[in-house]
Design a protein that fits this description.
Blueprint (H helix, E strand, L loop, with lengths): L1 E6 L8 H5 L5 E6 L12 E4 L8 H9 L5 E5 L3 H14 L6 H8 L1 H10 L8 E3 L2 H11 L3 E5 L7 E5 L2 H8 L13 E5 L3 E8 L9 H13 L8 E8 L4 E7 L5 H11 L9
Parallel strand pairs: 1-2, 1-4, 2-3
Antiparallel strand pairs: 5-8, 6-7, 6-8, 9-10, 10-11
Helix pairs in contact: 3-4, 4-5
Length: 273
């Protein structure tokens, strides 16, 4: 039986082999790194050039799964979530499905799901055409923030303070041609404290009750994997509101990353929360 590790991690290679060494199963690392960057501890390493966007990853695993029993697929970075979910669905492997992964990978889908469950969120609107920027400004008021929809962390593309700035921002179009569709979304600009909380939150964390409440409500409304850490972004606005910005699987702490990896591999984490 084989545990597949999809290595979409942007920094140095995490010690997956150490974290999963007690599994008793074959460890297969699929990565875009050069082979000499990987080191020892893996039973097999498959290097895929252009890993992040290459269909060769999917094809390799689809072919492998026809002749090898895949017991788990580990994928903790946003670019791998939908890919791994689709593979789990196809092979009947336990873990997050494609549909659930799509919700968590897209900031618009996350906020729509939370809002439908009554969880307060920052408003959001997809930006596919120039008209959408004007519509978002009319809906949210100024300033309006434009963010990248598909890039992890959803960095800010622009903060537009008035119609003149919207005209300047959209003057050259949002993409090189009219056929292309930009991957952006708009939201109201809010002032306040921003909190990044890794959940589930320990009872003795010392976090404010309001923050704990909204984080727990967000997790309850989303298709999360039990036991896996999730990074929840929350804004406490200057007018007293608590609003969820987003939620992701990326964790900055190595222990949290290890926990996520072991949960996805179906192993005991040794962590009580």
């Amino acid at each position: 039986m084989t545990i597949v590790i999809l290595d979409g991690f942007p920094g140095p290679l995490p010690p997956y082999a150490d974290w999963l060494g007690d599994s008793g199963k074959e460890l297969l690392l699929v990565t875009g790194r050069a082979r000499d960057e990987v080191g020892d501890g893996y039973d097999r390493v498959e290097v895929v050039e252009g890993y992040a966007n290459s269909p060769a990853v999917d094809r390799f695993l689809l072919n492998l799964g026809q002749r090898t029993e895949l017991s788990a697929i580990v994928a903790t970075e946003t670019p791998d979530l939908v890919r791994s979910g689709a593979l789990r669905d196809y092979f009947g492997i336990a873990g997050q499905s494609r549909d659930d992964a799509v919700v968590l990978a897209d900031p618009i889908a996350v906020r729509e799901r939370l809002a439908a469950a009554g969880v307060p969120v920052l408003g959001a609107a997809p930006v596919l055409r120039i008209t959408d920027v004007y519509a978002a400004a009319a809906k949210f008021g100024y300033p309006v923030r434009i963010r990248e929809r598909k890039i992890p962390g959803h960095p800010t593309a622009a903060v537009l303070n008035d119609e003149a700035e919207v005209r300047i921002y959209t003057q050259g179009g949002l993409t090189p041609d009219l056929i292309s569709v930009p991957s952006l979304f708009a939201e109201p600009w809010v002032n306040g404290e921003r909190h990044r909380v890794v959940a589930p939150i320990a009872a003795d964390s010392g976090e404010r009750a309001e923050l704990v409440s909204i984080v727990e409500a967000a997790l309850a409304a989303l298709p999360v994997v039990p036991g896996q850490p999730y990074a929840v972004e929350v804004v406490h606005t200057t007018d007293g509101r608590w609003l969820v910005d987003g939620i992701g699987t990326e964790t900055a702490d190595e222990d949290e990353h290890r926990t996520a990896v072991r949960v996805q591999a179906g192993l005991e984490t040794g962590v009580k929360r």
